[in-house]
């Protein structure tokens, strides 16, 4: 098995967090200290542990679990996202007090599954890690007091998840039957042309459907806006970010099997083009802020495809970097949404009216997040799209790059509508909740905005890490 505990310190630390939360959930709900008092500290420590372990490398468990630059890059991103998600959820007004330990336990369990997914290099292992990260979300999404929309969102997520899971498992059986292996390293030496192995191409396409579901890529996107709208703001912040990282790391590993011009690669490119166009056009008609961000996720899933179909280390690095940028941008947007909706309700565009007067720091942070999601400089959204475009240009899919540029223009309208309502609309909706302008709220928004800006202005350390990870995959 070649197991070495020193190589999996982030995973072991996260597992110990889960065990501590499990013990607290079994005991008296009034145990001290309350979970919100100690978990953020340890979640932050987990982020530090993942950074310290970034040089870990090796292969364990008979070759199904690999520690490399790619896995460590995504584990750092997952640990950071989990830390922010925990902080964001500590002031969740729609979660019953007796369910808080259970809520955080499932949150931690999902993040742990995503960490395992980052190192999985065999299809059955990927499938099991994906399901581990998904089952927790089936429990988390309906936890929103007595809101019927939360129950509806939970049912939709489970039903769509079941279909995607069945397709992935069915496709896996086709790949195994056609190629006689499920190890990605061995599959890389096989032919993936339709003329040589049609069964394998069909199988891989179906297996990828499970990843497309997590990424909310067309046509597996239907759950996304409804689930964001129905789940609590804090839960939606987690669902909208971390599971996307898990999907991208698997797609990056599987993209090493594909070369530009193959039928399956061209299919991915077309799905990416349709997804970004459909997501942006649908977002134009929305008034609910979380539905806007939901359709935005569909569009951004299409953007990631631009890097994956390039067939180069730079393309894979660009896709990995953009997924990290997307998580930072979305966490910032959902942080502001959660703080403005201090009573836990869904925000409409009109609820943002006059935000620059009521909460100037939150209005500024919302502007930074919106500009980043559009892709305007000097934010990380701009440099992320720049890396995607330069990596994919002149590799057979220039039309897809042009589609990305055109869709970015479409997106300007609805993203900047957020800023327009916050800064130019004066009429405050009657009955609107008072935004949370505490030190916790302002500092959190400011730090996330700083991350979005700094990563945009100084992206080279992170992108070089991603480049090294991409080159390591293609060796």
Relevant terms:
mainly alpha; 20 helices; 475 residues; single chain; two-stranded antiparallel sheet
Task: Describe the 3D structure.
The chain has 475 residues and is an all-alpha fold. Helix content is 71%, strand content 1%. It contains 20 helices and two strands. A two-stranded antiparallel sheet has the order 1-2. A hairpin with a 4-residue loop joins strand 1 (58-60) and strand 2 (65-67). Helix 1 packs antiparallel against helix 2, helix 4 packs antiparallel against helix 5 (123-140) and helix 11 packs antiparallel against helix 14 (313-340). It is globular, with a radius of gyration of 21 Å. The two termini are 24 Å apart.
Secondary-structure topology with pairs:
Layout: H1 9-26, H2 35-52, E1 58-60, E2 65-67, H3 69-89, H4 100-119, H5 123-140, H6 148-179, H7 184-187, H8 198-215, H9 223-230, H10 233-239, H11 242-255, H12 263-283, H13 289-308, H14 313-340, H15 355-358, H16 360-374, H17 380-392, H18 398-423, H19 439-457, H20 460-473
Antiparallel strand pairs: 1-2
Sheet-strand content, in percent, reads under 5%
Question: Cα-atom Rg, whole angstroms?
Answer: 21 Å
Give the structural class: mainly alpha
Largest sheet: 2 strands, antiparallel
Query: Judging from the principal axes of the Cα atoms, what is the shape?
Result: globular
Number of helices: 20
What is the helix content?
A: over 70%
Which segments are poorly predicted (pLDDT under 50) over 5 or more consecutive residues? none
Average of pLDDT:
84
Quaternary class: single chain
- Strand order of the biggest β-sheet: 1-2
Order of helices and strands: HHEEHHHHHHHHHHHHHHHHHH
**Count of beta strands:** 2
| First-last Cα distance | 24 Å
């Amino acid at each position: 098995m070649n197991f070495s505990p020193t190589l999996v310190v982030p995973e072991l630390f996260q597992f110990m967090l889960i065990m501590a939360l499990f013990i607290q959930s079994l005991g008296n709900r009034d145990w001290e200290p309350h979970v919100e008092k100690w978990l953020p500290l340890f979640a932050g420590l987990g982020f530090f542990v993942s950074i310290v372990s970034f040089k870990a490398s090796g292969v364990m468990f008979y070759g199904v679990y690999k520690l490399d630059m790619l896995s460590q890059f995504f584990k750092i991103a997952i640990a950071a996202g989990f830390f922010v998600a925990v902080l964001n959820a500590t002031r969740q007004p729609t979660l019953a007090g007796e369910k808080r330990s259970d809520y955080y336990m499932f949150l931690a369990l999902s993040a742990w599954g995503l960490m395992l997914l980052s190192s999985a290099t065999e299809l059955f292992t990927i499938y099991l890690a994906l399901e581990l990260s998904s089952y927790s979300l089936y429990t988390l999404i309906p936890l929103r007091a007595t809101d019927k929309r939360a129950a509806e969102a939970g049912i939709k997520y489970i039903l769509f998840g079941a279909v995607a899971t069945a397709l992935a498992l069915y496709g896996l059986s086709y790949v195994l039957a056609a190629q006689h292996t499920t190890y990605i390293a061995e599959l890389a030496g096989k032919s993936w042309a339709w003329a040589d192995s049609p069964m394998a191409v069909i199988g891989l396409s179906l297996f990828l459907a499970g990843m497309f579901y997590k990424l909310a890529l067309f046509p597996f996107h239907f759950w996304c806006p409804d689930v964001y709208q129905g789940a609590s703001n804090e839960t939606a912040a987690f669902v909208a970010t971390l599971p996307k990282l898990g999907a991208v790391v698997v797609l990056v590993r599987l993209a090493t099997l594909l070369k530009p011009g193959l039928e399956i690669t061209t299919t991915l490119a077309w799905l990416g083009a349709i997804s970004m166009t459909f997501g942006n056009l649908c977002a134009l008609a929305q008034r609910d802020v979380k539905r806007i961000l939901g359709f935005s996720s569909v569009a951004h899933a299409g953007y990631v495809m631009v890097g994956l179909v390039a067939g180069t280390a730079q393309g894979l690095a660009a896709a990995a970097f953009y997924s990290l940028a997307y998580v930072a941008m979305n966490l910032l947007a959902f942080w502001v949404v959660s703080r403005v909706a201090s009573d836990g309700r869904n925000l409409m565009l009109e609820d943002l009216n006059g935000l620059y007067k009521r909460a100037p720091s939150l209005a500024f942070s919302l502007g930074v997040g919106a500009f980043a999601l559009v892709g305007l400089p000097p934010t990380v959204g701009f440099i992320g799209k720049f890396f995607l475009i330069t990596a994919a240009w002149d590799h057979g899919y220039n039309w897809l790059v042009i589609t990305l540029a055109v869709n970015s223009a479409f997106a300007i309208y609805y993203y900047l509508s957020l800023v327009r309502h916050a800064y130019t609309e004066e009429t405050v909706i009657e009955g609107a909740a008072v935004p949370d302008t505490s030190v916790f709220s302002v500092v959190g928004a400011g730090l996330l905005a700083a991350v979005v800006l700094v990563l945009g202005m100084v992206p080279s350390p992170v992108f070089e890490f991603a480049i090294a990870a991409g080159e390591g995959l293609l060796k």
